[in-house]
Amino acid sequence: MTGFYTLFYKEWLRFWKVSVQTVLAPVLTALLFLLVFGHTLRNTLEPYPGVGYAAFLVPGLAMMSVLQNAFANAGSSLMQSKMTGNIVFVLLPPLSHREFFFAYLLAAVARGLICGAGVLLFTVWFVGLQFEHPLWILMFALLGSGIMGVLGIIAGIYSDKIDQLSAFQNFIILPLTFLSGVFYSIHSLPPLGLSLSHLNPFFYMVDGFRYGFFGVGDVSPWLSATIVAACLLALSLLALWLIRTGYKLRH
Predict the structure, then answer these.
(1) Given 155, 164, 227, 233, which residue has the most CB atoms within 10 angstroms?
(2) Residue 67 vs residues 6, 94, 99, 141, 223: alpha-carbon distances, Å
(3) Inside any domain, residue 205
(4) Rounded to an integer, what distance in angstroms lies between the CA atom of residue 220 and that of residue 155?
(5) At 215, is the secondary structure helix, strand, or coil?
(6) Is residue 251 part of a domain?
(7) Between helices 53-84 and 2-16, what is the axis angle to 10°?
(8) Looking at the DSSP assignment, which residues form a beta bridge with residue 177?
(9) What is the pLDDT along the chain (251 residues), one digit of tens a residue?
């Protein structure tokens, strides 16, 4: 486990040493979303009975921060290591592909959870949040950050330049996140939008996470957990295969 721990610690230090950029900045962005949307729409929308719009918005923003930062941590680390050439110092030691995978994954999960916790910590003073099912909150936070960490690993392995990684972020991650119900309940959408939302795996992460706070959601949390866990397993197997075969790493 020494190799795994050393690589994980290196990845931890990589984002924690610049925590103003990697942690504080995403928390500030979420607070700005809350101030703008929560203030302008708080008297016009009530997505769930008895739940104000600002309170509804906070779990979505926290989960959005978890997802985006978990992806950014793994993806940017691998891509930068490949660009600068220092990936060789990770590949030369006798690390198994599992150690490689889990070190990058857990570091991504750690950054995602810290950012999400930061959003909740700063917003709980402004919005009265409920915590109906804490275990659901924790489970979806772990599953969501895990999926995005794995996606970040896959994107980092595939990307050779910054613009390739940015394409993942801007054309896949960002649209799916914003269309996942962070800012609205999907039942407010027209029938076509409602059907398309059910095809978005990010929706199940956000909705299940929000269910943990209010005990109400757009779909069953068990359905959300099943879909999210299946996605995590499938993506993890793909990432492990890419690492084991050395795709764009050793060749």
Answers:
(1) 155
(2) 25, 31, 22, 9, 19
(3) yes
(4) 30
(5) coil
(6) no
(7) 110
(8) none
(9) 788 999 999 999 999 999 999 999 999 999 888 888 877 766 666 677 777 788 888 999 999 999 999 999 999 999 989 888 888 998 888 889 999 999 999 999 999 999 999 999 988 877 777 788 999 999 999 999 999 999 999 999 998 888 899 999 999 999 999 889 888 888 878 888 888 889 999 999 999 999 999 888 889 999 999 999 999 999 999 999 999 999 988 76
- Looking at the DSSP bridge assignments, the partners of residue 48 are 51
Q: Locate tokens 């039942």: which residue?
A: 187
Domain count of the fold of the chain: 1
Q: What does 117-156 look like in DSSP terms, one character per residue?
A: HHHHHHHTTTS----S-HHHHHHHHHHHHHHHHHHHHHHH
61 closest CA partner among 133, 147, 155, 127: 127
Contact (CB, 8 A) for 35 and 113: no
Sequence-distant (6+) residues with CB within 8 A of 79 are 155, 156, 159, 160, 161, 162, 164, 165
Torsion over CA: 141, 27, 120, 113 (sign): positive
Interacting residues of 199 by C-beta distance below 8 A, sequence separation 6+: none
Query: Considering the entire predicted model, what is its pTM?
Result: 0.93
Rounded distance between C-alpha atoms, residue 120 and residue 105, angstroms: 23
Tokens of 8: 């994980």
Residues 249 and 87 sit within 8 Å (Cβ to Cβ):
yes
Expressed as residue numbers, the domain containing 91 is: 2-245
Whether residue 250 lies inside any domain: the answer is no
Residue 216 burial (10 A CB sphere; 0-12, 13-18, 19+): middle
